Amino acid sequence: MLVTSIDDTVHPTCEPKPTAVDIQCAEFLAAVQAGDDARADELVATIDAAERPTLRGSALYYSQTLGWPVFPLKAGGKEPATLKGFKDATTNRRRIEAWWNGNPNYNIGLATGHAFDVVDIDPGPGGRESLAQLEQAGSLPDVHGYVVTAGNRAEGRPAGIHLYVKATGRGNRAGFLPGIDYRGAGGYVVGAPSSLGDHQTWQWLMPPSLDIKAHNNTERKVA
Length: 223
Fold this sequence. Notes:
single chain; 223 residues; alpha+beta; three-stranded antiparallel beta sheet; 5 helices
């Protein structure tokens, strides 16, 4: 598995000097795989304490810089705020500004299957074991972005993991391994720094690399 961010590339067969991003990724992943929810939550809290960009600014960054179609989700939730949901995802700047100017608390929906797919890993034992199996078998795709999901403190559910990988053209596969879903064409994920409230946020542990930037600069809308 190759792990790539905008600033650095690290391959497990090499021994470069680890960056802060590498260390955070390794510590969080180790905590999740070990079932150390307290340590995982501590790392999430550390990241969350840092100054976060605005939802509007992030939506514009995703759409205008990375070329990812975005759409609004209900404030404090995961449900679409538009009638057609992910089918309303677009890179049209005026529409995106109108959405977030109308409600700056809208969360961000990112349509999968265009520039990237997402491996969605549940924080429970099943997800940890399946992730370990993928890594041991060398079957985990190269990772080009790493997000810690919000979890749900009220339900005692710790944060999960979103691994951003190159788009394959395949569709969604719920439960393709125990504790792991695959988000591809026809799906979406919640984008950082969306929040469920009470500091439960989606956070980049490793920012997206340019390998999953949409290289077609024309305006895009999900059909």
